[in-house]
Every structure is written in structure tokens, then in C-alpha cells.
């Protein structure tokens, strides 16, 4: 497909820079520029926005974000082989793309944002993406430094992010996301859209922070959800034993015979506020 931005097709970029996909870095590249634009559009209007992109790889999504008008993109990529390809994009959009070589899991994103409201967009290996999402959800202060998160995951992880009580996918992620964000799954992407194709379907999830989430200490909420979903088939009086069991549930006015997946976010917060 001819690129609208005048830059070479991604397949050529990958061949020229020898960017054979590395499994260890979860490299499944999205080469269809219609799809990269669709992912970028999920973040809402990017006109004049500052975007942090994690894992730009050869830059397909980066190009879409810039073409849609972002005034500044700060991109963190772990694979140094991708830097020359990203430099070409930077040269094409002078002063608008800053590339940082590094591990996103060791990056201080709030400092990178420099006080600007930022939209975060990423197509990452799912384990890195899930860990980053949890980190972005757990700061001591709220609202957070980010305006929105637009993230690609394997579909099963997306289902866990948006899940509510009484859903098989509901767990720690669903509680955390439901507590502090409005999250929705935007659309699926089939394996064959990627090079090389992964084994499973991917999905794009968009999250925006809730202005005033229920008051709750994130560390305590983590403690309760870890205990409750650590033994999700057991009744709460059993799974919550290490943190207070029946007595704690009585104070929270929650039936001790219930199981973790039946509790609403409000009920989890109620328990957390009592430990
Ligand atoms: N954004 C590109 C796209 O959509 O085609 C590449 C996506 S590929 C699934 C994931 C990218 O994340 C790769 O470029 C990989 O090198 C990078 N990556 C993997 N782990 C990372 C980490 N811990 N920190 C930063 N980048 C990472």
C-alpha cells in the first residue's frame, strides 16, 4: 500500500534495516497503514496532542500518530536495531519525534511527560503491556499524568480488562480498571494482519481515567484482590482468611459464602477500606 505520508512502505523499511522479528521481544509488526491509523484514531483526536508511544518497532503506528497531527511523540523502544528506521521518521517530521532507547518497564513515564497531558499508545508484548497497565493504574495520586491509554493486547487480556462482576474474565485487572477507569474494547485485529502472525487474535483497548474514583488505597485494594482471586473458586471466608476472613467480611457486610467473581468494585473497595 502506498504510504500517505510519502515515507517508504513498511515492508521496504523492514527489509532495508534487516528488522527480522525477534520472538524474545514479542515483535509482531503491524504493516497495514489503514490499521495503524485505526488504532491511532481510537485515542481520539491527536491534533496538537503529546503522545507517548511504547514499542514503536519499525514505526508503523508512530507514522499514523504523526500523520494524524500529534505535535509531539515520545517513543520508547528496547531494540536498538529499530533506531535508524525511527530516525528516518524523525527526519521527515522535524522536532516532532523523540526516540528513547530503553526498557519501558524501567522508564519513569511521568517524568517523560514533563507536565504535559499525554495520551499513551502502545502495541507491546502482552506481558510487558499488562505490567505497564497495572503500573499506570496504581499511582498514589489521581487523576494520573495520562489522559488516555490506547493499548493492544491479546483478546483474552482485553476481556479481563473490561470484565465486570459475574463474568468469567473478571479478576484483579477488571477490578483495578473498573475502579479508576472507563475501559472498552474498541476492535479486534486478526493474527494475519501482523508480520509474523501471532497465534491469537489481538484487541485494542481504550481506557480513560474516572475523575473521582471511589476513595480507596491502591495497595490495600491490591492486597484484597490478590487474596480473593488467588483462590477464586473458594468462598471469600476462606480466600480472605490471611487478611481477616469472616470478621473482616462481617464488618464490610458481605456474605462470607460469596466468591470473588461476584463482588462489585464498590464491594472490593469497601473491604479494602477496612484493612
Ligand atoms: N509498534 C509496532 C507495530 O505496531 O508494528 C511494533 C509492535 S511489536 C508487537 C512490540 C514492540 O515493542 C517491538 O518493537 C519490541 O522491540 C518493543 N518492546 C518489547 N519489549 C519492550 C520493552 N520492555 N520496552 C520497550 N519496547 C519494547
Description:
The protein is of the alpha/beta class and 275 residues long. The chain has 2 domains: 2-209, Rossmann fold, CATH 3.40.50; 218-273, rRNA adenine dimethylase, C-terminal domain (Helicase, Ruva Protein, domain 3, Orthogonal Bundle), CATH 1.10.8. Helices cover 36% and strands 19% of the residues. The protein contains 12 helices and 9 strands. It has helices at 10-16, 33-41, 60-67, 83-92, 109-113, 126-137, 155-162, 172-180, 218-230, 236-239, 245-251, 265-272; strands at residues 29-30, 50-54, 72-77, 97-101, 118-123, 146-154, 181-189, 194-195, 202-209. α9 (218-230) packs across α12 (265-272). The radius of gyration is 20 Å and the shape is elongated. The mean pLDDT is 95.
Detail the topology: elements first, then pairings.
Layout: H1 10-16, E1 29-30, H2 33-41, E2 50-54, H3 60-67, E3 72-77, H4 83-92, E4 97-101, H5 109-113, E5 118-123, H6 126-137, E6 146-154, H7 155-162, H8 172-180, E7 181-189, E8 194-195, E9 202-209, H9 218-230, H10 236-239, H11 245-251, H12 265-272
Parallel strand pairs: 2-3, 2-5, 3-4, 5-6
Antiparallel strand pairs: 1-8, 6-9, 7-9
Helix pairs in contact: 2-3, 8-12, 9-12
S-adenosylmethionine binds next to strand 1, helix 3 and strand 3.
Mean pLDDT: 95
What portion of the residues fall into strands of 2 or more residues?
15-25%
- Quaternary structure annotation: single chain
Q: Record the strand order, biggest sheet.
A: 4-3-2-5-6-9-7
- Give the count of helical stretches: 12
- The CATH class of the largest domain turns out to be Alpha Beta
Helix content: 25-40%
Predict the CATH topology of the largest domain: Rossmann fold
pLDDT < 50 runs, ≥5 residues: none
Ligand species:
S-adenosylmethionine
CATH homologous superfamily label of the largest domain: Vaccinia Virus protein VP39
H/E topology pattern: HEHEHEHEHEHEHHEEEHHHH
How many separate domains? 2
How far is the first residue's CA from the last residue's CA?
Answer: 57 Å
What coarse outline follows from CA principal-axis ratios? elongated
Largest sheet: 7 strands, mixed
- Structural class, by secondary structure, is alpha/beta
Amino acid at each position: 500500500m502506498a504510504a500517505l505520508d510519502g515515507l517508504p512502505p513498511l515492508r521496504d523499511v523492514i527489509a532495508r534495516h534487516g528488522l527480522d522479528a525477534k520472538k524474545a521481544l514479542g515483535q509482531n509488526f503491524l504493516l497495514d497503514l489503514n490499521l495503524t491509523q485505526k488504532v491511532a484514531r481510537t485515542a481520539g483526536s491527536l491534533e496538537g496532542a503529546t503522545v507517548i508511544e511504547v514499542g514503536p518497532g519499525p514505526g508503523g503506528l508512530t507514522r499514523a500518530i504523526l500523520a494524524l497531527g500529534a505535535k509531539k511523540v515520545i517513543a520508547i523502544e528496547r531494540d536498538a536495531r529499530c533506531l535508524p528506521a525511527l530516525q528516518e521518521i524523525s527526519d521527515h517530521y522535524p522536532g516532532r519525534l523523540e526516540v528513547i532507547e530503553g526498557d519501558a518497564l524501567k522508564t519513569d513515564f511521568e517524568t517523560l511527560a514533563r507536565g504535559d497531558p499525554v495520551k499513551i499508545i502502545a502495541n507491546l508484548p502482552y506481558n510487558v503491556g499488562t505490567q505497564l497497565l497495572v503500573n499506570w493504574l496504581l499511582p498514589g495520586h489521581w487523576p494520573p499524568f495520562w489522559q488516555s491509554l490506547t493499548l493492544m493486547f491479546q483478546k483474552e487480556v482485553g476481556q479481563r480488562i473490561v470484565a465486570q462482576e459475574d463474568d468469567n474474565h473478571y479478576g484483579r485487572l477488571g477490578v483495578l480498571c473498573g475502579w479508576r477507569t472507563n475501559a472498552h474494547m474498541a476492535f479486534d485485529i486478526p493474527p494475519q494482519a501482523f508480520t509474523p502472525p501471532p497465534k491469537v487474535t489481538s484487541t485494542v483497548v481504550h481506557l480513560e481515567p474516572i475523575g473521582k474514583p471511589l476513595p480507596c488505597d491502591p495497595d490495600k485494594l491490591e492486597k484484597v484482590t490478590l487474596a480473593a482471586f488467588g483462590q477464586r473458586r473458594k468462598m471469600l471466608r476462606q480466600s480472605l482468611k490471611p487478611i481477616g476472613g469472616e470478621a473482616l467480611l462481617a464488618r464490610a457486610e458481605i456474605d462470607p459464602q460469596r466468591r470473588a467473581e461476584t463482588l462489585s468494585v464498590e464491594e472490593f473497595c469497601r473491604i479494602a477500606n477496612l484493612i
